Amino acid sequence: SQQGEEDPQALSIQEGENATMNCSYKTSINNLQWYRQNSGRGLVHLILIRSNEREKHSGRLRVTLDTSKKSSSLLITASRAADTASYFCATAPYNNNDMRFGAGTRLTVKP
Amino acid sequence: NAGVTQTPKFQVLKTGQSMTLQCAQDMNHEYMSWYRQDPGMGLRLIHYSVGAGITDQGEVPNGYNVSRSTTEDFPLRLLSAAPSQTSVYFCASSGTGHLPLTFGPGTRLTVT
Lengths: 111, 112
Hints:
- In chain A, strands 2, 4, 5, 9, 10 and 11 form a six-stranded mixed beta sheet that branches. A five-stranded antiparallel beta sheet of chain A has the order 1-3-8-7-6, with no helix packed on it.
- Chain A is globular, with a radius of gyration of 13 Å.
- By secondary structure, chain A is an all-beta fold.
- Chain A has strands spanning 5-7, 10-14, 19-24, 29-37, 44-50, 55-58, 61-66, 71-76, 85-93, 100-101, 105-110.
- In chain B, 0% of the residues lie in helices and 50% in strands.
- Chain B has strands at residues 4-7, 10-13, 19-25, 31-37, 43-51, 54-57, 64-66, 76-78, 87-94, 102-103, 107-111.
- Classes of the chains: A mainly beta, B mainly beta.
């Protein structure tokens, strides 16, 4: 079964608003990563947060990790139409090398 | 660097046919993996490799074979194609299994 589960499945906002998407996972992890996929293309890595980190920033992205709740959130601030894409979380388990992805959140940013 | 390349981009097979999806990377990455992506189901791991000569099964390995004879190449073989294998296939690589993955552009496979 998939390791990560994103919520919501779809999100539609106006340009300039913030977008928050959540990820829950099941087992102990080495790190958690977020990826973006534009329609029909390969995934692109956005940000990695280690299991001993609680928050990380990269430009307009902010990621939090709560290992006690096995959950993470991705915040995109001041969204742009170009942020329209699907966003996936992926977990790298401690005890093996298979990285598992969730089903993704489809974000639409309206101009 | 070309990154991760995949061939072909599109393929149509008839049920029962076999074929090999090619994947190559020029970043000297030890870790390589294959995923399939179906609508609404995210990416599911098929097989992965942590180095030349070493492969392991992922979440959905049935109907697929892999080998890793060199660091650069990681082909995925469909032994006897079935309509359930209609999907988009992505190859990815990284320095290790825990580092960020670099994805190829994908192969869109249709089995009729």
